[in-house]
Every structure is written in structure tokens, then in C-alpha cells.
Amino acid sequence: MLVILGKASSINVRKVLWVCEIIGIPYQLEPYGSGTANSVESAEFLALNPHGMVPVMIDDDFVLVESNTICRYLAAKYQRSDLLPAGPAERAQVEKWMDWQISDLNSAWRYAFMAIARQSPLHRDAELLHRSCVEWNHHMRVIEQHLETHSSFLTGSQLSLADIVIGLSIHRWKSTALDHPSFPNIEAYYLRLSELPGFVAHVANGYP
């Protein structure tokens, strides 16, 4: 059985678990990280991922890290070309959103999320907080404008890995107490995502 090391509160672990749910892959989640009995700083864990981050996927004797890469691997292994197309142009449309999410979007929200949701004492600079909130909403506006001219999902009429990673990011935005502009296209899109298998368990599961 596929083994995932991580915890249900981690947004990156939840990406992988949601993919497993949608594809129908049996898995075992072994809790690792703060608040669990298993440390990501242990020698055992660092031998699997020297970066000390979750998730870690173990598929028989194959170990893989980085959440978006794990999602790509699972879609490819189970031949889910609906989630990750085989054609280079179509696949690039999905992967550009995944890359944007893990880089630009994550960088925009990180300070605001740590200050507001996590109440981190290391994130108390008012100017940096304001800047992060503005950048976060700017990036959400990119999604809002994209959805004006596209169909049900980000890259077409059917769900792809792009929707899974962006959907979790939208949930984090909606769950964080900052000023939210009115984005009706995002609201309608989020409602469509809420009808998918695993949404309650892995997206709207009480964690931002």
C-alpha cells in the first residue's frame, strides 16, 4: 500500500491525499511533523527527505518528495490523463498553474498567513503584513480574471491537477481573516470543487 508521511493539517499533504481520493488509490497516512509523535528532524525521516519537510511518499521501494511532483507521479502512474494530459501543450497548461502555485502564489501569502492564521511572533511587521495581504489578493485576482473566460475548471471542462493545487490555495485564502475582495468567479469555482470526492476530508477539513 502507498504510504504518505505527513499530517492532515498540512496543505501540501492534503494535495496528495486529495489526489489519492479522486483517483481511488488506497494509502496509509503516517503522522509526521509538529503535534505528532514523529519528528521530521529524526535521522529516520531525514534519510528519506533531507529537507525535513512533508509529505514524503513511499511506493514500495520508491521514495518521492515535493507535493506537486508526487501529484504528477500518481496521475502518471495511474494513467489519469484527465488530471495530467499526455500531450505536451495540454500538459503544459496544467503544469504552469502548478508551478505558479508553488512559487509566486505561495510567496505572496506566506507572511500574511503566518501572521494572521498562525499568530507567529516572528511575523509582526505591519508593513510586511500589509504588503503580503495586497500581494495575496492580487494573485487571487489573477485566478478570478482567468475564470471569466474559461469553462468549469482552470484548463478546460474537466478537473486537472491544476485545480487540486489551486483549489487548496483558494481554501486557505478564504479561511484566513484578511480583507477579501468580491470574486464571484472564484466563489462559483470553489462551489464546483466542493462537489468533488474528498473535498470535505482533505480541503474543507477544519484546517486553512
From TrEMBL:
<dbReference type="InterPro" id="IPR036282">
    <property type="entry name" value="Glutathione-S-Trfase_C_sf"/>
</dbReference>
<feature type="domain" description="GST N-terminal">
    <location>
        <begin position="1"/>
        <end position="82"/>
    </location>
</feature>
<dbReference type="InterPro" id="IPR040079">
    <property type="entry name" value="Glutathione_S-Trfase"/>
</dbReference>
<dbReference type="Pfam" id="PF13417">
    <property type="entry name" value="GST_N_3"/>
</dbReference>
<feature type="domain" description="GST C-terminal">
    <location>
        <begin position="87"/>
        <end position="208"/>
    </location>
</feature>
<dbReference type="InterPro" id="IPR004046">
    <property type="entry name" value="GST_C"/>
</dbReference>
<dbReference type="InterPro" id="IPR004045">
    <property type="entry name" value="Glutathione_S-Trfase_N"/>
</dbReference>
<dbReference type="Pfam" id="PF14497">
    <property type="entry name" value="GST_C_3"/>
</dbReference>
<protein>
    <submittedName>
        <fullName>Glutathione S-transferase N-terminal domain-containing protein</fullName>
    </submittedName>
</protein>
<dbReference type="InterPro" id="IPR010987">
    <property type="entry name" value="Glutathione-S-Trfase_C-like"/>
</dbReference>
<dbReference type="InterPro" id="IPR036249">
    <property type="entry name" value="Thioredoxin-like_sf"/>
</dbReference>
